[in-house]
Amino acid sequence: AAGVIQSPRHLIKEKRETATLKCYPIPRHDTVYWYQQGPGQDPQFLISFYEKMQSDKGSIPDRFSAQQFSDYHSELNMSSLELGDSALYFCASSYEGSSYEQYFGPGTRLTVT
Amino acid sequence: AQTVTQSQPEMSVQEAETVTLSCTYDTSENNYYLFWYKQPPSRQMILVIRQEAYKQQNATENRFSVNFQKAAKSFSLKISDSQLGDTAMYFCAFMNLRYSGGGADGLTFGKGTHLIIQP
Q1: Closest CB to B102 among A50, A58, A101
Q2: How many inter-chain contacts (A to B, CB under 8 Å) are there?
Q3: φ, ψ (nearest 5 deg) of residue A5
Q4: How far is CA A88 from each of CA A13, A40, A105, B47, B103, rounded to the nearest angstrom?
Q5: What confidence tens digit (pLDDT) does each residue in A61-74 have?
């Protein structure tokens, strides 16, 4: 079965640089979610999109922005990177027919040096 | 806002034993789902089981079952006949549903329980 695809899987950036993470949801899924998981922590919800419109907003810093495109893929843009942004970033997708079960991608490991 | 509490940072049991992981939550919402996710050393987040708040019957998926007590806001996970591959971090998660507008809110996770299955 198709899964959520995230790219890149690993990313190394320097402080103050910009990063773009991409997410391709499971086909037919209409909702995409972004989460940030720091070392030894639980995942923190950042933002979600339903049918290409922002649906819910969590603890996303103002330096971050995201959008969902017409083909339902989503991108998380991160600017002015800080050391504290080093984390595992997950994308998840769901649709109403699956009782909104969120299926997670493998994550993008971002390291800011 | 809702909160999810997992009071057991770490648990260790012998292979083939039964283990129960605890989770409590606090919410003023009435229409929500609860989940257990497993995160093995690979860091992949794997959905284990789902419970709809409006259902009284406890969910079961093979060796995994839940004890959902809505009035007590309790949602524990029981793993029967535990296997070495069950060793992982287990997260309890809450999700609020929407009555209108479509979609669902993001998940709120507990801090997790590190489960170790000993051979």
Answers
A1: A50
A2: 75
A3: -110, 135
A4: 14, 11, 11, 18, 24
A5: 999 999 999 999 99
